[in-house]
Each structure stands twice: as C-alpha cells, then as structure tokens.
C-alpha cells in the first residue's frame, strides 16, 4: 500500500532522530559486545589473560560503570539547560534542532552504551562464564571502549561550549532551511506537473483534521489518479495549515461517490511543522529569532541584523539553485514523474512575507536594522528574478511607510529613503 509505506517512512525518519533510538541502539551494541567473550572463549589459548593483565578488567569495568553514569546525568542536565536557553533566548521552534543534534545524541548514546556494557560485563564476570580466555576478549573490548569514550568526550566538550547559544541556534536553523530550500529549488513542483488553474467545477477535497500538512505522498496521488482517470491539483503542501473547511486538493473530473476518501490517505497531518519537508518553516523560525532580539526586553539589534544577513544568503542561494534547475531555456524540461498531479512552485512573495513583513514592523524605529533590511531587499531585487524583484519592491515600500511613522529624526528618514532609492532603479 503506497500510502501506508509513505506514512511508515515518515514515522521511521522521525523515530531515528529521537535520542532514545540512538541510545537504545548503542546500548544493544554494548550488551552484545560484553557477551562476545563467552562466544570467542574456545578459540583463545589458556593463560593469555595472566600474561596481558586481563584479570584487572573487573576493576576497570567498575570505574567505567560509575563514571559513565555520572557523565550521562551531567550531560542530560546540561542539554536540558541548553534547550531551555535556546527556547527563551531564540525561539522554542528551534529547540527541536538541538534535540535532534547528532553529536549530542551520539555522545549520550555512547555513554549509556558503555555504562550498560560495563554492567553486563561485571555481571558476567561475577557468574564466571568468561573464564580466563573470555577475560582476554572482554579486556580487549574494554580498551576499545575507553578509546571511544575519550574521543567522544573531546567532541562533546567542544559541542557543550556552543550548545544553546543564539549564534549556534541561528546556524542550525540556517542549515535546516538551506537543505529544504535547495531541495525544493531543484524540483520546484516536486516531480509533479506544472501548476495550471483547475476547472471551476473541480471537486474540492477537504480533510477532517486540524493541523499542519507534514507530507504529501505524490506517488499515491498519481496512482489513484491513473486508476480513476482523474487529475489532482494539490492545494495544501507541507507547512500548510489544514482545517476541515480548507481544501487539500481539487479533483477533475468529479470522482465517483466514496472515491475521494482514498485521496485523503496521501496527506499526513500533524500538530507541528517540520524543517525537512517545509522550506518556509526555516525562514519563519529565523524571523522569530530576530523578532525576539528586537523586543524591548532583549534589545539586541545585532542579532536581528545577523538574521537578515542569514536570510538574504539563503534566498540568494535558493534563487541561484532555482535558476540553475530551470536551465537556459534550450534544454528540454524533464518529464514529471507524476503527470496527473499538479502542484505550485514556491512563491517568492510568500517567502519575503514570512521574513520582511514582521521584521519591517518590529524594526521600524531602529535605523540600523531598517538600513540592513533595505539593503537585503535591494540584493534580492538585483538577482534577476522578476517575481522576486516585484516582491522586494512591495516589501520595501511597506517598510518605508512603517519607518516614516516611527523614526523621530527627519535626517534618519531621509537617510533611509536614500538607501531605498534602488526601488526606482531596478
């Protein structure tokens, strides 16, 4: 069942990002390794344990077990504090990226895995199932575990020095947003056909849930459309807020009674937006970081300026990738894999509204931030994309109106109008 497999892939993808999954995997490896000595014992010569000092392995495992438990407890408390700091100083929406940090997960998983390895090894030693030859294997694996711990601790210490800082949070959100934006730029319609307005009498597909669209299984829509001889216009892509009244898609010609319910299985709706499938969500989270920095309680215009530079870089990279994917007009466009499904490309106007509409309002009284905002818009307008240029002009006009109402000094307003003169030149 294609719909089931799509949902299963989404569940598995999210499960592998959870801390408990990696910790359980490492713990399983640790327990298996600890019991490896009982399997390899018959192939090792007697007396080797005494020659290499493997009899001390019990003391070493005891030290590892006690120290790893303390290190794990300390690391967890540090991570919780970092999550709280990121949520209060940046935005709560960025905390999920810290939770899914691979370095932190590997570190905690290693500590828990080595702890369980040590406990299982001590239990096995106390029962005498190893023997002298089995102690040799356990001793060798313990030395390897110590090397792994040292390397992990060094990386973990470096990571702790950055975890939870606003600059690090911005970098993480930028990486997540860039991945989603460039992925969408390479396939503007997600391998579906280009968007065309649906017929006026097209059947409107409504969902029965309230939440955010996390995934749209285009393969399922294509399969069902071929089976029933329909064309599907996807109205709700990943990140869209779905309600019982809002259309998820439109079908033409009108399907037989009951057929439309099969199309609902292609839409996965959850209670939160996701960075992976939703390219606009990263821009929204970056904007929230800047808005918090501009609040009177924080009063950190430097962070807002940093976010504006980050967003400008992301949108420039997206525009360049989209231009490269479109080619020079001489190459034939690839045939869509889902020709019966039509889906909109990203709208530059919406991308700029996600960022510049709230920031123009919140920074209207700060000349230094307003200057950077107009310089960012000028950069985007000069990229050669007509839609992006028109959207940048509209945002600049709105920002100027807000700044004129908030800036006290006439010379500040004149300075801003001078910088925004690009609107009449591009």
UniProtKB/TrEMBL annotation:
Keyword DNA repair: no
Spans through the membrane: 20-40, 60-86, 107-130, 136-157
Record-given protein name: DUF2254 domain-containing protein
Superkingdom of this protein's organism: Bacteria
Keywords, ordered alphabetically: Membrane, Transmembrane, Transmembrane helix
Family matches, as InterPro entries: DUF2254_membrane (IPR018723)
């Amino acid at each position: 069942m294609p719909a089931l497999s799509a949902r299963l892939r989404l569940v598995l993808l999210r499960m592998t990002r959870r801390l408990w999954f990696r910790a359980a995997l490492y713990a399983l490896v640790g327990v298996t390794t600890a019991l490896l000595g009982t399997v390899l014992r018959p192939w090792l010569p007697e007396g080797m344990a005494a020659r290499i000092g493997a009899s001390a392995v019990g003391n070493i495992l005891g030290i590892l077990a006690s120290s790893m438990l303390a290190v794990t407890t300390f690391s967890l408390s540090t991570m919780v504090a970092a999550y709280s700091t990121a949520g209060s100083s940046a935005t709560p929406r960025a905390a999920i990226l810290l939770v899914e940090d691979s370095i932190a997960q590997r570190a905690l998983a290693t500590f828990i895995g080595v702890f369980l390895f040590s406990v299982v090894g001590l239990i096995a030693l106390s029962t005498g199932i190893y023997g002298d030859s089995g102690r040799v294997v356990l001793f060798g694996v313990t030395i390897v575990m110590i090397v792994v711990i040292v390397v992990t601790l060094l990386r973990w210490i470096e990571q702790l020095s950055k975890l939870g800082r606003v600059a690090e949070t911005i970098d993480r959100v930028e990486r997540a947003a860039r991945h989603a934006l460039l992925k969408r730029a390479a396939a503007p319609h997600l391998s579906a056909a280009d968007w065309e307005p649906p017929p006026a009498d097209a059947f409107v597909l409504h969902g029965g849930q309230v939440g955010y669209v996390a995934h749209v299984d285009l393969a399922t829509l294509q399969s069902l459309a071929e089976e029933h001889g329909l064309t599907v216009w996807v109205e709700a892509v990943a990140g869209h807020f779905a309600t019982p009244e809002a259309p998820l898609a439109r079908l033409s010609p009108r399907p037989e009674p009951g057929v439309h319910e099969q199309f609902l299985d292609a839409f996965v709706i959850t209670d939160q937006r996701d960075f992976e499938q939703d390219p606009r969500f990263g821009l929204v989270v970056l904007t929230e970081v800047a808005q918090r920095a501009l609040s009177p309680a924080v009063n950190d215009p430097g962070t807002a300026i940093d976010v504006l530079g980050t967003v400008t870089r992301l949108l420039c990279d997206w525009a360049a990738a989209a231009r490269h994917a479109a080619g020079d007009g001489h190459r034939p466009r690839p045939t869509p894999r889902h020709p019966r499904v039509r889906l909109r490309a990203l709208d530059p106007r919406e991308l700029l509204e996600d960022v510049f509409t709230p920031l123009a309002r919140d920074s209207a009284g700060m000349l230094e931030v307003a200057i950077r905002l107009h310089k960012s818009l000028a950069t985007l307008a000069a990229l050669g994309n007509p839609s992006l240029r028109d959207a940048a002009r509209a945002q600049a006009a709105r920002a100027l109106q807000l700044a004129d109402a908030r800036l006290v000094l006439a010379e500040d307003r004149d300075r801003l109008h001078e910088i925004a003169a690009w609107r009449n030149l591009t």
